[in-house]
Design brief:
alpha/beta, binds 2-amino-2-deoxy-6-O-phosphono-alpha-D-glucopyranose, 256 residues, Rossmann fold, eight-stranded mixed beta sheet
């Protein structure tokens, strides 16, 4: 794989043409945390972006008994969940995580933490933040990026919330995620999501952005300006972000 690593300010940029190879490299960063931390705390995301990374992590785990042992001590935290979908709903992020990662690695079931989108949401948010405080912050957090620059379900707006909260989804996001539901109308209008503060507390952040549809969001996120109108731009403030992308973007931050 041809990969160009440019250290620009605090963002490490890994560019290549093969998203599977980039995803394997990202999976290697998670494997490294699993191998080195006594009680590894891993932050996970959903959507199409991390799918190849999860497949690679499952493959690396199957081939390595030390990784299998490490998973037994690990805790996993997810960014978000739709309001109103129960864990057994195949469209829920719970179901996504079981199908794409957790059913294939030996993590204890009670070490799997995903926000609860049913029942009393305020209680669910506080409980999630308490758990994050108690066990976290994650040693490493993977993120995708929405076309409007959202991370988790922290949508663009006049302000951003720091802690886990209930977010109203924008029409853009509901349209973008309609492929999993049939039509935009069927996409829940709200979600429980970790806040920006929760995300930025992770020790290392891995952002995966593949395909031309992510190009503009990447340019904005690393333009050198920080704005709540592009939540991913706050990643520029984090001390350890690695971006894996197959897009030939040259955000201002990289040019400087
Ligand atoms: C959803 C998730 C985000 C994800 C984004 C991008 O809205 N809440 O965490 O990053 O979609 O999804 P994809 O990777 O499918 O493009």
């Amino acid at each position: 794989m041809q990969s160009l690593v440019t250290s620009c300010g605090k963002v490490r940029w890994v560019h290549g043409h093969d998203s599977a190879a980039l995803s394997r490299e990202a999976a290697g960063m998670f494997a490294e945390v699993l191998r080195t931390e006594e009680q590894p705390v891993l932050g996970f995301a959903t959507g199409a972006s991390p799918l190849q990374m999860y497949a690679a992590l499952v493959e690396q785990t199957a081939a390595d008994p030390a990784l299998q042992a490490a998973w037994r001590r690990a805790h996993g935290f997810n960014l978000d969940e739709y309001v109103g979908l129960s864990p057994s709903d195949p469209r829920s992020y719970h179901a996504y995580m079981m199908a794409n990662l957790y059913n294939h690695v030996p993590i204890p079931r009670h070490h799997i933490h995903i926000p609860d989108g049913t029942g009393d949401l305020e209680v669910a948010c506080r409980r999630y933040d308490d758990l994050l405080t108690q066990l976290g912050p994650p040693h490493i957090q993977v993120l995708g990026i929405g076309r409007n620059g959202h991370i988790g379900f922290n949508e663009p707006g006049d302000s951003l919330e720091l802690r886990t909260h209930v977010a109203d989804l924008t029409e853009t996001t509901r349209r973008q995620n309609a492929r999993y539901f049939g039509s935009p109308d069927e996409v829940p209008s709200r979600a429980v999501t970790m806040g920006i503060g929760d995300i930025l507390r992770a020790r290392r952040i891995v952002l995966l952005a593949f395909g031309a549809s992510k190009r503009e969001a990447l340019e904005r996120a690393f333009s050198g300006e920080v704005s709540t109108r592009c939540p991913a731009s706050l990643l520029q403030l984090h001390p350890s972000v690695t971006v894996f992308t197959d897009q030939d973007v040259r955000p201002a931050l990289l040019r400087g």
